[in-house]
């Protein structure tokens, strides 16, 4: 995939990701192939050996293939969503959220995907309408203490299991905001397992370490 990205070959990246998720399942493909590739891309970019546009090309190709995999499991008459997936309001790095969406679809759960940079007031509005059993929020960038999202998640926890993924969450702030019972999910397999447990769904894979 690194070679393909450097050659501006998005189609080859897509084929590699697609082959991996279909043959290995999303969690294993993410853990063994996609995530290590992203780490290596970051390392190469920091060293000045990887172009920024190649990183964007790789990310977009991966997202496209993960979403295509998600669509393979779409129900023509889906039930009401029980899980909300979103990224914090200041976050544009959504690739892990698309990975989780694909893993949930593969396990028989069709979440409500709200994507990048979701304002806190929008999360509050959709959570009040949908009343999900679980809310997963991704943050790769720091979520400041004054961010309204903390209060929204604090209120939501009474109706929904709140799962926090990514390095942007501060455990000290979480405790001060009444979110000490929120579930911290360190990897995709753990996130999948805990969401399935929260919604009472048995079709889950064990966490991959």
Automatic annotation (TrEMBL):
Recorded coiled-coil stretches: none
Pfam families tied to this protein: B12-binding_2
Top-level taxon of the source organism: Bacteria
Span of domain B12-binding: 80-206
Name this polypeptide is given: Cobalamin B12-binding domain-containing protein
Organism, as annotated: Aeromicrobium wangtongii
Phylogenetic lineage: Bacteria, Bacillati, Actinomycetota, Actinomycetes, Propionibacteriales
